[in-house]
Write a structure and sequence with these properties.
This protein is mainly α and 195 residues long. Helices cover 54% and strands 4% of the residues. It folds into two domains: 4-33 and 135-194, no CATH class; 42-109, no CATH class.
Length: 195
């Protein structure tokens, strides 16, 4: 579990306040980056796996039959939400049997749910090093800080620009899940604890 001191160090590193950092962790992973068994929380994204396979020279359409739970061309909530209730590590392991590198890049990891394909922006030289580091909560926090500095989202947090942060961190469809509103509400809750 992250300490107040660690959250404070992270906030200094990205030049924002502590409630902003805590708000992202709260919305992304309910404030905890680990499952009960101690493994990092993950969410495997089949539409990302599709793209990662293409980047690795593999035609995903040719192997889609029998892999519909881990491989689909687009994110469609009506079709894929059911997969989010499945064991995410089982989905990841199944994908690794097809291509390990693409599979690791297709999951979001830890308290801040950073996609594996963002490993370099988080300061790691390989996706495997990034994944290994996610077994420590402080490394999850540092990965987040490095990532948002690299993609300049720390400025959005500095100004509590929740729409701007949500768009950059969660994609242009952030509004469908009210991501910006959830961030603001979480921020307000943490901010009120300080007062």
């Amino acid at each position: 579990m992250l300490t107040e001191h660690q959250y404070g160090d992270a906030a200094k590193l990205i030049a924002c306040d502590v409630p902003s950092v805590k708000a992202v962790a709260q919305v992304e992973a309910n404030g905890n980056g680990f499952l009960k068994d101690g493994r990092p929380k993950i969410l495997f994204e089949g539409h990302v796996f599709w793209k990662q396979l293409l980047k690795n020279g593999i035609d995903p359409q040719s192997i889609q039959v029998g892999n519909e739970d881990i491989l689909y061309p687009v994110w469609d909530p009506a079709k894929v939400r059911k997969y989010y209730n499945m064991d995410q590590y089982a989905r990841l392991e199944k994908a690794k049997q097809i291509n390990e590198d693409a599979a690791l890049k297709s999951a979001s990891w830890g308290a801040f749910q950073i996609m594996g394909f963002n490993y370099a922006a988080c300061g790691y030289n390989s996706v495997q090093n990034f994944v290994d580091a996610q077994s420590d909560d402080y490394n999850q926090l540092l990965s987040f800080c490095n990532y948002i500095k690299k993609v300049h989202l720390n400025v959005n947090l500095q100004h509590q620009d929740w729409k701007g942060f949500a768009r950059g961190y969660n994609g242009p469809d952030y509004w469908k899940n009210q991501y910006d509103i959830k961030l603001k509400n979480a921020y307000d809750g943490f901010k009120n604890q300080i007062i």
